């Protein structure tokens, strides 16, 4: 199936590995992720003021772009993009007056009809069925223990989450279908610090220390997540964590699509691991997950 | 589809369409040198009776110049030296650069590269930084950097185009340093059109024997000047905007020592003393020689010629004025504006109202202009509703020859210019007529840009003469300001290492005024004019400055 | 030249609030001058290349704001207009040799571009019909080449900067992107470099100096060489 997808700004810069591995692993499942033409930055933060229509223009413009190509679904990878697009979509679907105002403002575009559904890639995979993923696994991630990390925007606020906000399992289900183990991490829903990373990196380091140390102490080899901002805070900011907490031990951070690509037996270059701050390669080599196919013994 | 033309023009366009296929294969022959001379003598505006005269006054007495230029040479200064307090120096610098176009900016950058301290340079311009003819060049810059080309071939082209009247030394450096300028531009970050291998797109121009016009679509001058301006701002080069130089200063050793500046907005004067004064004042299109419309920018009023003349600089080849063959002739709002020669370089043809070709599309500019004038004089051109003559330039040929979308991609400036008036030049031809374009001659310099016999004064760019002789080829004006702007920066910097400035005076102005009085020149004539006068008659005749 | 048989068509325009009747064949610049104004600011090349004459106008009973270059716009009846004399906008200062053409360089130089809400107001203001929002968006995601291509025809008139609610100055971003693209990303022009090396090695000097001698002493011979030179412009 062909489905339009929304990359978002981060996937073109700090999250290149996320995009690369997503497109590659989707292809294995016969899903062609087609980049939405002329997409714009989603705005990243959903405005909470009900009459601030200006900050809903960008997400709605993207939904118009979906209708421009006669499609009705839009898949996102970044949790922030997912949340922003979904919430703006809900706002205008529930409030025809606001939609009319926005359509009139954007008079150079066709009117948004309200017919687009915003999906997170994890939702799409769940719809297809994780057993389908299991069927495509060529290299089960045996011996790899992961700590799923949801962050905030995949499951909050409740109306827009893709899973239970208190006890989500979607990442666990995905990971298990790929053959890996999971641990329970009560910090899996704790905020990574989000935009505080810009001017309060110490705060972010503090949060990261707790999240990652618990994961490490519970036996996790790596964290798996779905958001480039979380990935930046939990991966790149390990530099700050080490500075603040000298006893901290590094732990690799992986996007769920990188795990998929790994399990599907795709080439190293499709994983996009070069951009990770904490190099996952030593871990993957240690677990014999990165040897050439022909040398893996069943 | 809106076609932007009145019905009688649309009828003529049908005739143009009918002959298109034939004209793709049949192109008129190039003229011989003798034929070129003949058509120029008969039809080129330079040869029209009563449009030029011999200058009566000063070091250029005896030179033949168009009346409009002679009017500036035989004119009184704007300032009265007794009103200027030279004991108060407002700006003291090593280099005073008059003009912030291509030559001025290039000179400033190369002066910095040559080691001058940025605080010892000052650029002064009567409008804004970058406001110049340089910014308006469209088609390209010549440089012999392709394999089957050479600077020697470029040299021949320049000399032949100039009717062999150029200064042979100046031409050598022009062609020899051309590829180096392109390389420098690449380092600066000028976006020349290139293919995926890095080979520059090159096109042919009038009078060239090889394709060597490097371009940035049809915004070549603008792209270069934008980058020069960006770099000048990065380096924080001091630029004094909205200040005109109205008279050069001299010192008691007979050297040029700076200029008196006049603030266009505040209407006060300042004194700028400089060890070296660099003249980069550009062209003269706004003098509207013989009443022609012009491609030039608002400030092209030959101020540099006026000031340089008063300090004894020789000016040559002013009897030869370059008209660009294809200035817009319709609609009225854009009359005179440039339609790049590259349009012909990429295949369009001048065609009369019957759809017939009448000249090889890429003769040197003066010949091509004469041919268009001849055709209109014969009655084979159209007249616009506002009385402008014109012939067609069959631009749809460009897409036919090079592929659909060529015009939109390579001539996006031209395409937009006409689109604003509901004319689609990919489907319909455009109406053109010669327009006043370039000052072929000018201040005499040597290859180090020193103004001959005037110590302390340097000059480069359109205000100078000798490089192009009596007719410039397309793509060599950008090259001129780049090569000689650079040389001016380098050599002026070298000069100021050992230069001193003595006591300032405006004696030359007093002397010149006397010469004018003795020659009986009317006091009403004053120069430099700084800006052209376009206000309605009523306003001018009733103008009354009452603010005390 | 033909005499006008009929009376010249006139239109009413309102220059900075003052009513004037001007011929319909004028552009806005010439209308100002016809009305008696002399420009110091707000005019430059008069040919659509310098951005000095950025003009804002409305029509009677129409709330919409329109934008144009005064020198490239025909006057229309009822135009209520002004030319902007100046646009306040600072640009970042940088050393091209020290910049790296990676994805985040534009955000680092102009972090305010992240404030873009994709309202498209800049695009609507652009008299060069550029997709300004698109190139600002490309800048946010680090696509330098796309910014360079989309912004190429920009004449830096400042209308987009004046209209942007996020207070971005798009044309500054376009300028650095174009320079970065041309300097670092576009392929290098090797033939040009090769030729420069040849010239510096004085390969052509003999021939050039010969021509100089001929030009001074035997012009007829030089003319002959000129006429006989092969023309290869096909």
Structure, described:
The two termini of chain A are 32 Å apart. The model of chain A has no long low-confidence stretch (mean pLDDT 93). Chain A is α/β, with parallel strands linked by helices and 298 residues long. Chain A has helices at residues 16-28, 57-68, 79-94, 96-105, 121-128, 130-136, 170-177, 196-199, 201-217, 228-236, 238-244, 256-263, 281-286, and strands at residues 2-6, 32-35, 73-76, 117-120, 145-148, 181-182, 222-225, 253-255. In chain A, the strands form two sheets. Chain A has a four-stranded parallel β-sheet. The mean pLDDT of chain B is 95. Chain B is built from 17 helices and 21 strands. Helices cover 32% and strands 17% of the residues of chain B. Chain B folds into two domains: 7-30 and 326-436, Succinate dehydrogenase/fumarate reductase flavoprotein, catalytic domain (Flavocytochrome C3, Chain A, domain 1, Alpha-Beta Complex); 81-320 and 439-505, FAD/NAD(P)-binding domain, CATH 3.50.50. In chain C, α4 (132-140) packs antiparallel against α5 (144-150), α5 crosses α7 (170-185) and α9 packs across α10 (219-228). The model of chain C has no long low-confidence stretch (mean pLDDT 94). Chains A and C meet through α2 of A and α4 of C.
Topology diagram in text:
The complex is a heterotrimer of chains A (298), B (548) and C (234).
Chain A: E1 2-6, H1 16-28, E2 32-35, H2 57-68, E3 73-76, H3 79-94, H4 96-105, E4 117-120, H5 121-128, H6 130-136, E5 145-148, H7 170-177, E6 181-182, H8 196-199, H9 201-217, E7 222-225, H10 228-236, H11 238-244, E8 253-255, H12 256-263, H13 281-286
Parallel strand pairs in A: 1-2, 1-3, 3-4, 5-6, 5-7, 7-8
Chain B: H1 7-25, H2 33-43, E1 52-54, E2 64-66, H3 67-73, E3 91-98, H4 102-113, E4 121-124, E5 141-142, H5 151-161, H6 168-176, H7 178-188, E6 202-203, E7 213-214, H8 220-234, E8 239-240, E9 243-251, E10 256-263, E11 269-279, H9 303-310, E12 315-316, E13 321-328, H10 342-345, E14 350-351, H11 365-377, E15 382-383, E16 389-393, H12 396-402, H13 406-410, H14 412-419, E17 430-439, E18 442-444, E19 457-459, E20 464-465, H15 476-496, E21 504-505, H16 507-518, H17 537-541
Parallel strand pairs in B: 3-4, 3-11, 4-8, 11-19, 18-20
Antiparallel strand pairs in B: 1-2, 5-7, 6-7, 9-10, 9-21, 10-11, 12-18, 13-17, 14-16, 15-16, 16-17
Helix pairs in contact in B: 2-11, 4-8, 4-15, 5-6
Chain C: E1 10-15, E2 18-23, H1 28-35, E3 54-58, E4 66-69, E5 79-83, H2 105-109, H3 121-125, H4 132-140, H5 144-150, H6 159-163, H7 170-185, H8 190-200, H9 205-217, H10 219-228
Parallel strand pairs in C: 1-5
Antiparallel strand pairs in C: 1-2, 3-4, 3-5
């Amino acid at each position: 199936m062909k489905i339009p997808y929304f990359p978002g700004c981060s996937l073109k810069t700090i999250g290149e590995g996320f995009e690369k591995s997503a497109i590659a692993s989707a292809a294995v499942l016969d899903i062609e992720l087609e980049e939405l033409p002329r997409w714009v930055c989603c705005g990243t933060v959903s405005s909470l003021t009900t009459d601030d229509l200006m900050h809903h223009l960008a997400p709605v413009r993207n939904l118009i772009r979906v209708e421009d190509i006669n499609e009705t679904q839009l898949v996102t990878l970044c949790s922030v993009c997912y949340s922003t697009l979904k919430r703006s979509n809900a706002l205008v679907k529930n409030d025809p007056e606001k939609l009319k105002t926005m359509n009139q403002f954007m008079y150079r575009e066709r009117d948004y009809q309200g017919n687009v559904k915003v999906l997170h890639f994890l939702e799409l995979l769940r719809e297809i069925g994780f057993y389908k993923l299991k069927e495509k696994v060529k290299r089960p991630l045996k011996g790899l223990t992961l700590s799923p990390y949801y962050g905030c925007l995949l499951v909050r606020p409740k109306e827009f989450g893709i899973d239970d906000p208190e006890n989500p399992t979607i990442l666990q289900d995905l990971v298990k279908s790929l053959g890996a183990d999971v641990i329970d991490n009560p910090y899996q829903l704790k905020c990574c610090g989000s935009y505080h990373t810009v001017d309060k990196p110490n705060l972010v380091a503090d949060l990261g220390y707790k999240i990652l140390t618990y994961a490490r102490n519970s036996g996790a080899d790596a964290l798996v997540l779905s958001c480039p901002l979380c990935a930046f805070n939990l991966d790149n900011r390990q530099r700050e964590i080490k500075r603040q907490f000298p006893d901290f031990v590094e732990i690799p951070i992986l996007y769920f699509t990188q795990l998929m690509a790994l399990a599907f037996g795709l080439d190293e270059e499709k994983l996009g691991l070069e951009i990770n701050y904490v190099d996952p390669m030593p871990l993957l080599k240690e677990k014999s997950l990165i040897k050439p196919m022909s040398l893996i013994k069943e | 589809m809106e076609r932007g033309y009145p019905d009688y023009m649309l009828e003529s366009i049908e005739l143009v369409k009918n002959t298109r296929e034939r004209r793709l294969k049949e192109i008129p022959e190039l003229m011989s040198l003798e034929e070129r001379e003949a058509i120029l003598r008969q039809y080129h505006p330079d040869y029209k009776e009563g449009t030029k005269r011999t200058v009566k006054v000063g070091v250029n007495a005896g030179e033949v110049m168009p009346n409009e230029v002679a009017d500036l040479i035989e004119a009184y200064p704007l300032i009265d030296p007794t009103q200027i307090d030279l004991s108060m120096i407002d700006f003291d610098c090593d280099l005073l650069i008059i003009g912030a176009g291509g030559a001025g900016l290039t000179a400033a950058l190369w002066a910095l590269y040559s080691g001058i301290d940025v605080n010892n340079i000052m650029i002064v311009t009567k409008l804004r930084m970058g406001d110049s003819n340089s910014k308006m060049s469209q088609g390209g810059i010549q440089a012999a950097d392709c394999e089957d080309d050479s600077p020697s071939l470029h040299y021949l082209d320049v000399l032949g185009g100039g009717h062999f009247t150029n200064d042979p030394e100046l031409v050598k450096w022009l062609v020899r340093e051309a590829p180096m300028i392109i390389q420098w531009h690449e380092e600066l970050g000028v976006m020349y059109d290139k293919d995926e291998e890095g080979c520059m797109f090159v096109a042919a121009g009038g009078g060239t024997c090889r394709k060597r016009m490097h371009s940035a679509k049809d915004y070549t001058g603008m792209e270069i000047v934008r980058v020069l301006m960006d770099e000048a701002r990065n380096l924080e080069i001091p630029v004094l905007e909205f200040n005109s130089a109205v008279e050069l200063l001299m010192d008691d050793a007979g050297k040029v020592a700076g200029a008196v500046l006049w603030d266009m907005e505040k209407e006060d004067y300042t004194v700028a003393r400089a060890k070296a004064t660099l003249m980069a004042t550009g062209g003269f299109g706004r003098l509207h020689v013989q009443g022609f419309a012009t491609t030039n920018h608002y400030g092209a009023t030959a101020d540099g010629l006026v000031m340089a003349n008063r300090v004894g600089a020789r000016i040559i080849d002013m009897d030869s004025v370059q008209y660009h063959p294809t200035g817009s002739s319709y609609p009225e709002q854009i009359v005179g504006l440039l339609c790049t020669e590259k349009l012909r370089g990429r295949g369009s043809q001048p065609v009369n109202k019957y759809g017939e070709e009448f000249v090889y599309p890429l003769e040197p500019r003066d010949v091509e202009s004469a041919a268009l004038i001849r055709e209109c004089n014969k009655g084979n051109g159209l007249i616009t509703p506002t009385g402008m003559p014109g012939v067609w330039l069959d631009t749809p040929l460009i897409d036919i020859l090079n592929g659909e979308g060529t015009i939109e991609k390579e001539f996006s400036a031209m395409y937009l210019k006409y689109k604003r008036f509901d004319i689609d030049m990919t489907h319909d031809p455009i109406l053109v007529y010669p327009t006043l374009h370039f000052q072929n001659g000018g201040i005499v310099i040597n290859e180090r840009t020193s103004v001959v016999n005037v110590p302390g004064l340097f000059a480069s760019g359109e205000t100078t003469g000798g490089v192009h002789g009596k007719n410039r080829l397309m793509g060599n004006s950008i090259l001129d300001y780049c090569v000689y702007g650079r040389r001016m920066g380098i050599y002026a910097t070298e000069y100021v290492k050992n230069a001193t400035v003595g006591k300032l005076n405006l004696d030359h102005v007093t002397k010149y005024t006397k010469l004018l009085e003795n020659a009986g020149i009317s006091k009403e004539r004053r120069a430099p004019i700084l800006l052209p006068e376009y206000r309605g008659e009523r306003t001018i005749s009733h103008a009354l400055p009452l603010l005390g | 030249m033909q005499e006008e048989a009929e009376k010249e068509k006139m239109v009413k325009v309102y220059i900075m609030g003052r009513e004037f009747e001007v011929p319909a064949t004028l552009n806005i610049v010439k209308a100002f001058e016809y009305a008696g104004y002399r420009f110091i600011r707000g005019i430059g090349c008069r040919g659509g290349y310098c951005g000095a004459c950025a003009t804002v106008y409305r029509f009677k009973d129409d709330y919409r704001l329109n934008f144009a270059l005064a020198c490239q716009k025909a006057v229309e009846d009822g135009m209520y207009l002004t030319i902007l004399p100046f646009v306040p906008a600072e640009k970042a200062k940088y050393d091209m040799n020290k910049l790296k053409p990676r994805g985040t360089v534009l955000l680092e130089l102009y972090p305010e571009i992240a404030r873009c809400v994709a309202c498209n107001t800049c695009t609507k203001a652009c008299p060069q019909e550029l997709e300004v929002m698109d190139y600002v968006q490309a800048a946010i995601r680090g696509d330098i080449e796309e910014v360079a291509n989309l912004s190429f025809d920009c004449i830096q008139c400042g209308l987009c900067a004046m209209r942007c609610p996020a207070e971005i100055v798009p044309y500054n971003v376009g300028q650095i992107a174009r320079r970065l693209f041309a300097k670092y990303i576009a392929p290098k022009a090797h033939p040009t470099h090769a030729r420069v090396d040849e010239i510096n090695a004085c390969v052509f000097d003999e021939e050039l100096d010969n021509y100089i001698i001929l030009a001074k002493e035997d012009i007829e011979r030089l003319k002959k060489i000129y006429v006989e030179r092969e023309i290869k412009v096909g």
